[in-house]
């Protein structure tokens, strides 16, 4: 018992520290993004982000999901077609539908923050300001 109590305190402090390290609003953005994902992405990319072979690519640890946020946001705004994505030798022949007239800036920021922090991914959040700026630039 004597050794267990200090260990419990260390765990509580470590957890509190880890939570404090997250940027403000990350948890809330992930929760909102999950709902957007379920409505706008899940049908193709699946609940666990594993995709469908030959049709829809997976979202786990891909260079698009974890890489440059602008390139990633552009895929969501403008969509993709023609099997441009190749992952482990597989290409995907469904079209990725553009979301620019379906989702607003906040929804795109939230869903990308969710995707970048789910399915084994861990990456910085995407903010509404970043989506807004890119949307204006791509007009
Ligand atoms: C109709 C099916 C469909 C829907 C709905 C859809 N996608 Fe896609 N997505 C695709 C396909 C197909 C590709 C690959 C297109 C290509 O290779 O030309 C793709 C590519 C991607 C990529 C880049 C490749 C990768 O796997 O990393 C990301 C990221 C992505 N989609 C995220 C999303 C998000 C987030 C949503 C919801 C807002 C969404 N998709 C909705 C079918 C879909």
Automatic annotation (TrEMBL):
<dbReference type="InterPro" id="IPR009056">
    <property type="entry name" value="Cyt_c-like_dom"/>
</dbReference>
<dbReference type="GO" id="GO:0020037">
    <property type="term" value="F:heme binding"/>
</dbReference>
<keyword id="KW-0349">Heme</keyword>
<protein>
    <recommendedName>
        <fullName>Cytochrome c domain-containing protein</fullName>
    </recommendedName>
</protein>
<feature type="domain" description="Cytochrome c">
    <location>
        <begin position="28"/>
        <end position="119"/>
    </location>
</feature>
<feature type="signal peptide">
    <location>
        <begin position="1"/>
        <end position="18"/>
    </location>
</feature>
<dbReference type="Pfam" id="PF00034">
    <property type="entry name" value="Cytochrom_C"/>
</dbReference>
<dbReference type="InterPro" id="IPR051459">
    <property type="entry name" value="Cytochrome_c-type_DH"/>
</dbReference>
<keyword id="KW-0732">Signal</keyword>
<dbReference type="GO" id="GO:0046872">
    <property type="term" value="F:metal ion binding"/>
</dbReference>
<dbReference type="InterPro" id="IPR036909">
    <property type="entry name" value="Cyt_c-like_dom_sf"/>
</dbReference>
<keyword id="KW-0479">Metal-binding</keyword>
<dbReference type="GO" id="GO:0009055">
    <property type="term" value="F:electron transfer activity"/>
</dbReference>
<keyword id="KW-0408">Iron</keyword>
């Amino acid at each position: 018992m004597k050794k267990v109590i200090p260990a419990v305190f260390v765990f509580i402090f470590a957890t509190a520290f880890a939570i404090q390290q997250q940027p403000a609003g990350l948890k809330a953005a992930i929760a909102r993004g999950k709902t957007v994902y379920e409505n706008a992405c899940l049908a193709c990319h699946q609940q666990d982000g594993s995709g469908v072979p030959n049709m829809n690519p997976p979202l786990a640890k891909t260079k698009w999901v974890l890489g440059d946020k602008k390139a990633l946001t552009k895929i969501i705004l403008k969509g993709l077609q023609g099997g441009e994505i190749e992952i482990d030798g597989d290409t995907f022949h469904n079209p990725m539908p553009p979301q620019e007239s379906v989702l607003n800036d906040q929804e795109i920021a939230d869903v990308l923050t969710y995707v970048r922090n789910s399915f084994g991914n861990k990456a910085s959040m995407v903010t509404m300001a970043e989506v807004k700026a890119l949307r204006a630039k791509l007009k």
